[in-house]
Amino acid sequence: MFEHLVCFRFKETLAAQKEQELIETLLSFKGKIPGIVEISAGVNETEETNNVQGYTLGLRVTFQDRESLQQYGPHPVHQEFVKSIGGIIDNVIVIDYPVR
């Protein structure tokens, strides 16, 4: 299996409703994109405020294998999401690693 971690930083503070819409969209990937074993997403609530660096939304996706992870990026559902946040996203951090 492979873990895919994403941290999102937005250009401006998002309204709570918009954050929830994004989370619901991300969670809907399971069942629409093959190879997703588990998925979670949420608003950053860390108490380590000096380490936040503006990243307010997190995503964790567990894929069944490396091939599923590789097919995720160009998948139309994922690409539609990427386009939908194009105007509001400032930066993302991505980490992918095999589960051992």
From TrEMBL:
InterPro entries: Dabb (IPR013097), Dimeric_a/b-barrel (IPR011008), HS1/DABB1-like (IPR044662)
Recorded superkingdom: Bacteria
SUPFAM superfamilies per the UniProt record, alphabetical: Dimeric alpha+beta barrel
Record's protein name: Stress-response A/B barrel domain-containing protein
UniProt subunit comment: Homodimer.
Domain Stress-response A/B barrel: 2-97
Pfam families (alphabetical): Dabb (PF07876)
Biological source species: Paenibacillus aceris
